[in-house]
């Protein structure tokens, strides 16, 4: 693939009850891209939030313009938000990230640094390599995350250190091909994307990141998601 930089970056930003976080994360993203001279758009994909997130997104679209803020609504399992958002993405690089400020929004380093360094198809933020880490989680949440990542390493041997993270940069055409192959939903989706990428011969670079627990709102992670994750992991083990 060619080594040219992106003409435009699309950020897919799934939201659920993020009215307090959304204005700040959008402002930080817009400032970061503008300071870096990178053309961008932010696609807000809201999962029917009852807290007024959609109204906030509407106001942000008026402030920044419809060429920079694209609002969409979806009511499907987590994971399909990206599929829905891809339909509206015009960038040739796609960034996926959380809207709860847990990911450091000065994300251009993922492109200008690591992506250019190795001309990678995917650059993934990793909490489990180098000086990466997690801040603000209790012991239970850390054990769940570490345990999930350990199981995926043992069973799938993907060649990447953080399969359950959701802060990544993709070439658009690569993301489209991966989505055509992936069948998982929820938290397994991120894991399957990396496993399929390795199978299909795409190159993956990793950048250590500091993951900070959300300030406002609540995580949707619960018992049902953990059970679904384990089922999805075993399915991938049996089929890949």
UniProtKB/TrEMBL annotation:
Transfers mannose from GDP-mannose to dolichol monophosphate to form dolichol phosphate mannose (Dol-P-Man) which is the mannosyl donor in pathways leading to N-glycosylation, glycosyl phosphatidylinositol membrane anchoring, and O-mannosylation of proteins; catalytic subunit of the dolichol-phosphate mannose (DPM) synthase complex. Pathway: Protein modification; protein glycosylation. Component of the dolichol-phosphate mannose (DPM) synthase complex. The gene is Dpm1. Its EC number is 2.4.1.83. This is Dolichol-phosphate mannosyltransferase subunit 1. It is found in: Endoplasmic reticulum. Keywords: Endoplasmic reticulum, Glycosyltransferase, Magnesium, Manganese, Metal-binding, Transferase. GO terms for cellular component: endoplasmic reticulum membrane. Its cofactor is Mg(2+); Mn(2+); Ca(2+).
